[in-house]
Specification:
34% helix; 288 residues; alpha/beta; eight-stranded parallel beta barrel; 7 helices; GH18 domain-containing protein; Chitinase-like; GH; TIM Barrel; Glyco_hydro18_cat
Length: 288
């Protein structure tokens, strides 16, 4: 594995906003001993015409439940919290397949910028300007070429990073590869590694018979991405307890060897209102 060989666990991330069951940020699950806790709002999805993507994004989460004011109040209350918006989607209707690459880049940059700017807000008697902290790239279905995916997504990230209106809200950029999209995200990362902070690999989309199987894939992926361990996060699902059990045991194994910087969870809905998996994983991270 390249880069750092010993890391301190610092980050826990939770996807939220799918469906109507959760109507607030459940800050009761947050462990104060975690250096960074990220809520990831999902999804901002694009409009498609005749099966082709336009790059015109709009939020799918409830703007009432997860409003700019609620983001501001959460971040004022808990200094270790960041809020990120996830771009893409996990359904067949959310496939990455631009009609025209140049138009897609222009539309995507503009529409995502608009979503970010809508979250700028100040609270009463508070001069701090609160807002979103970054974006997460999360397309599970991709029909374009590998190079088109890398070029289009990479260009949008770069433009948002340097845009004077939103650059201050682009502190965090993550990508969320899965087994079927690995080649696309690997190219995206290699072409834009200076702009991407976290690699959130969806281990929960694969089955592992043993912790050794999990560790083997973890090592392969870190080597393939050619990145330091402090950029690579393990994904756990709250939907499949049996499958996640081995992954969590694998996380504990990596933590004991100081090889895991953090974990992300998909998603908050199944574990509400107790949020037991989230609490247990954060305890593991905090004690190491």
């Amino acid at each position: 594995m390249s880069g750092s060989t010993i890391v301190t666990p610092t980050i826990f991330r939770e996807y939220i906003g799918m469906g109507d069951y959760i109507d607030h940020f459940p800050d009761e699950m947050i462990n104060a001993d975690i250096k960074e806790f990220h809520f990831i709002l999902c999804f901002a999805t694009e409009t498609h015409v005749d099966g082709k993507g336009t790059g015109l994004f709009d939020r799918n989460w409830s703007f009432t439940s997860f409003s700019p004011e609620k983001v501001a109040e959460l971040k004022k209350k808990l200094k270790n919290v960041k809020v990120v918006i996830s771009i893409g989607g996990n359904g067949p209707e959310d496939t990455f397949n631009p009609k025209n690459n140049e138009d897609w880049i222009v539309n995507a940059t503009s529409s995502i910028k608009g979503i970010i700017l809508n979250y700028q807000t100040k609270l009463p008697n508070d001069d701090v300007l609160y807002g979103i902290d970054g974006i997460d790239i999360n397309y599970e279905k991709i029909s374009s070429s590998i190079s088109d995916f890398s070029n289009c997504i990479g260009e949008v990230i770069k433009q948002l990073k340097v845009d004077p209106d939103v650059s201050k809200f682009m502190k965090v950029v993550s990508i969320a590869p899965t087994e079927g999209s690995q080649s696309y995200y690997l190219k995206l990362y290699r072409d834009n590694k200076g702009y991407i902070d976290w690699i959130d690999y969806k281990f929960y989309n694969q089955y592992f018979n043993t912790v050794e199987d999990f560790e083997k894939l973890f090592k392969i992926l870190v080597t393939e991405y050619g990145t330091a361990l402090d950029k690579f996060l393990v994904g756990v699902s709250t939907y499949e307890a049996i499958k996640s059990k081995t992954i969590i045991e694998g996380c504990e194994y990596l933590l004991n060897r100081r090889s895991l910087v953090g974990v992300f969870v998909w998603d908050a809905k199944p574990s509400a209102p107790a949020y037991t998996p989230e609490r247990e994983i954060q305890k593991l991270l905090a004690k190491n």
